[in-house]
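The freezer alarm interrupted the setup, so I double-checked each line after restarting. Inputs confirmed:
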Amino acid sequence: MTWQFNEWHTTHALPLGATKRAEVGARVRAGDIIASGTTYGSAVRVAAARRLGVAPDDLARVMRVPLGAEVEKGAIIARTGRRFARAVSAPIEGRVAHIRADGDLELATIVDRWTVRATLDGIVKSSDDSEIVIEGFAWGLQGVAAYGPDAFGDLTLAVETAGMELQPSRIDVRQQGRILVGGARSGAESIARAHACGAAAVVAGAVPASGLRVLFGDDTGAHSKPMRGDMPTVLCLLGFGNAPLPASLFAPLAELAGTRAAIHSASARLFVFAARDAIRPPAQSPSLALVSDWGALRPLEGSVTLGEEMAFPSEMSARVVVTADGPIPAANVRSLA
Amino acid sequence: MTVATTAGPRATVDVAHEATSIRIGPRTDGADLTVTYGEPLRLAVLVGRDPVNIAAAHAAALGANADIVASLGTAGTASLVDRATVLREARPQAALVIADKGDTSAIVELVEALRLGCASHPPSVFVHADEKARVRIAASASPMHFEALPSPATAGGREAIVARLRALRRGAGDVVLRDEAIESAARALAAASGRATLVVDVTGANTSLVCASGATVIAAHSHMGIGPGADRVVARAGLDRVRRWIPRPIDAPALLERVFNRARWPDAVATSPLTLALEMSLAREAIAHLVRDARRAGLDVDAIRGAEIVVATGDLARFPRPAQTALVAIDGLAGEGTQLITRELADALIVQGAIATRAASADVAGTTEAIALVLTVAPKRSTTVTVTDANGTVEERVGRGALFLVPTTGQAQIALSGQTERYTASGLSLGVIVDARGRPLELPQRDAERVPVIARWYSALAALPIDGGAA
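Predicted 3D structure, all chains:
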């Protein structure tokens, strides 16, 4: 959970119906389209091998268009013979989506088009019909969970201090296309407003769990939920409820304001495309504590010492970390390293 | 490996917890066995219309602790593309295909969808179909490789599927999965006691119910828990079902925050009575939901609920008070008849279960402590229960809705008026619990009515410390 300048890998899952995708070895920038395709509507089964009188395995040999090609209504898809020709033509406009084992074709209508964009500046390491992996260097910050589609934009501070809540009143259309950095908390109203104003994403220490359910559905859990389409993007850096960002996380965010950045939802990571020496995160990592009722998290900035085992009001016994505010179970304290 | 015997050397076993591992045994340089949760497995189920096959597929998934990420049937009207889209989004690591007799074309349709959706990252495909259908399925699945297996509706077939799926969860390492260890432990306990034994294992990430009786073992495992699996309990059972067990008013958003933070904080310690109550509530719902899943999968839930001995393991056994373990087990299972509730001592049973997976026998003596003898009754009119122990005889009137504890010392015997049967147990740390609340447990909807009821139940067993002191 600390800032790291590393070589990162991002995996981009592709939906069904890819038409174009970046080749292995291609150099890409965050935000570049690395794959595009079509969303299929209803499909029509077309008898092909049977109609042509060829074995299913030989169908590919007599096809006039490749699998995945877009065809117009009436276009010849496959043909045999010269003098007594047999042909299979498209009954609808669409794409040849699938060749069945029995030699029939599935011709699907096109109802929409999709694109997938890179979230790293780097090189395509692998590319197939279902996913593309990119490898590249960037400053990265691992969050706890991210929700919504991948996002790209310049990093913009929307709060003055790490402990502030991102208020809806601070968000307007001037932040269009930017990744907004909130402080300790960003509520559902702020996230919805940021999305309505065209902001690319919101990054905050914590987001209320109920707000996430309002925005992303009742099946939303504590783990990342990558999505597609016109949805807001949120990156929870530390947890849920309220979590002031430690200075070691917030200060570099402030320094990097205005820099190009991206959020990869599936891995819950923020990438910032700045030079290796753009920031100098502190060598010592701060610790984070889960408050006693688990409703929030707080950074432990002062000195702490490891204490003996003790019993808590719940009667649970655990080894403790002694802080200025009292003892906390050692298991409820975590280093951000 | 060094196998434990009553007289010989003991094995050293590493038992994985949420984020850490605890070594139990004499060695310090390494472990003979490692018990882990295994990798989560994403399973797609492609099945015909036969309810027996549908239930069998779900039972196999429960047995292997696989997460069903897509369940497609031939009864639906979805198109090939719709089905392929579902499978692509689900990204299964394994697919279980069960063909009905005489419905080959429909199952082939599902396999075509599997190839369209997942061919570039093919899952492991396991197929049960007759020979003719298998040839057609093989043609449609190509180039995906598949393995033909016996019907999951038979014990042998289910075992074979569970073994294949567990192998995928195990990965490359030579490890014992926690669910395997629990099953072996349940077998060993049932063999040792000669009575139907149910092991209820609730940990941060998993919940298991394994009922062993003679040679029969009924097993259901899920990735719901009171730690990293807590948000799954809420997602599947619903937040209100978890909230209803909290013995004080708390609004749903505040509770959800706590659940989500717990889910992302492995091994977090519940320091306040509220967080402890939350863990207990999550455990109840994880158990109750798994029982419902087991019923849907056609498993013998009556056998699970009616087991004579209930053994709590994992985090369920580690609640500070034995009464907390007992109350959660009683509420979650909604058991019937008379049951002896016991709990595991510090991973001891899991260790013996792990050893039993590699050895002919296991020494389960001394791995559990007896907590309470629970008498579940549904009296139509007030009745009397007589408890006899080393201190004498106590008679208690039992009205509908009652829940109370009779502390006992030494050997305890209970008898219900009008019945000739006598139940005995010894060394109970709590005593005899009489539960006349009825089944299913009905809780009032409104907080103002429900919270006092729940608080009364906690209080009856002295199961929750109150802020600032013990109850």
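Quick read of the result. The mean pLDDT of chain A is 93.
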